[in-house]
Structure formats: structure tokens, C-alpha cells
Amino acid sequence: EVQLVQSGVEVKKPGESLRISCKGSGYTFTRHWISWVRQLPGKGLEWMGKIDPSDSYTSYSPSFQGHITISVDKSGTTAFLQWSSLEASDTALYYCARLASGVDYFDYWGLGTVVAVSS
Amino acid sequence: QSALTQPRSVSGSPGQSVTISCTGSSSDIGNYDYVSWYQQHPGKAPQLMIYDVNKRPSGVPDRFSGSKSGDTASLTIFGLQADDEADYYCCSYTGRSQVFGGGTKLTVL
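Output (C-alpha cells, whole complex):
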């Protein structure tokens, strides 16, 4: 069974750094791109970026480029979403999702990680 | 990349049909047959309902149907049921990335 297991709730202060994770199981992790999707409180889904776990090639939305970093671990089973300096506006629910192919649809989703940033 | 345009809300009675539109441009919907639709119930992760414009994953009822004309994609739900009440999002490939629609809240009256 394909599963994407995300890390737990994070409560941080503005300016702090953070890395959240998404561990894949039940399939060959390096065969499918992983995307990160943001959902602001009460709002819609926003595509942030994606990574090819086979070679760590990344593509970012212009809206998030320079503010986030997407990576994978060397063992090739976990993807990460990282901020070097959080802002209050980063408070949101973050989903990881598996791309069925490099360009196509998201066939499996994690349950989401809540990130709360407040002074 | 601007978000795809969806109506904020639609509604219908049980048994009726509703259609949700998703308008993009020649840079996304108009240029690629990689449109997908997701259903999200409150407090839950999104679930894939339609992919590649009009294909249904296994387990999704055939009451859900997708189509596309030019820069606009559509999701039609036939025979509305109470459990269809949810938020629906369209998504398109854009050449290097993906873009979502703003979401449509479906209310079953």
C-alpha cells in the first residue's frame, strides 16, 4: 500500500528555521516526483514545487522560489520542505503529494503538516 | 503563474447534476491534456477524482465526469449525493510546473 507519512505539528517563531518531512513507502520512491502543496487557513491549494527523487532535480513555483527549499535524503525515501527564516504568513497546512508522472496528476497525498508561526 | 479560475460555489439538490468550470489559458489547460480534479472534505487531505481531463481512478464513481474545451475544463457530477458536498479543485500542468484553481465549494441542498 502506497503511503506518504508526514511529520507532526510545528510551532515556531518568526525568523526560525524549519524542515518538515514526507516519507514514502509501498513503492519505489525514486520513480515518482514529490510535490509540496500549501493550504492557508480557510483557503485553497497552492502548488509550491516538486522534486525528482532520482536525481534531486527541483522545480519551484515563482511564488515560492527563494523562500523554500525542497530536497530528498540520500537513502531516497524521504522528501523535505525547508525554510531558513519563517514568517507569520507561512502559517498553513502543508501537504506532500506524489506525482503519477513528472507532469501529471497527484495520485497519493500525505495527511498534511500544520505549521504555526507566531511571536 | 496565475491560479486557474473556478466559481467560488455551486449547489444542487440530491439526484441533480452540477458542473464546475475551471478556466485557464493557452499556457496551461489550453495546451496540455493534463487536467486533474480533487475533492477535499473538511479536515481531510485532497483526493484525486479525475485525471488526464476525463479519466477516473479506480474507486471513483462514474457519476464523476471530466471534459475540456479550449482553455476551460469542467467537472460534472451526476446524481448528486450528500457525501459529494466538499471543496473541489482543478489542477493543470503548465510546462514546468502545476497550477491549481481557487477551489469551488459544492453544497448539496
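The CA atoms of residues 69 and 82 of chain A lie 5 Å apart.
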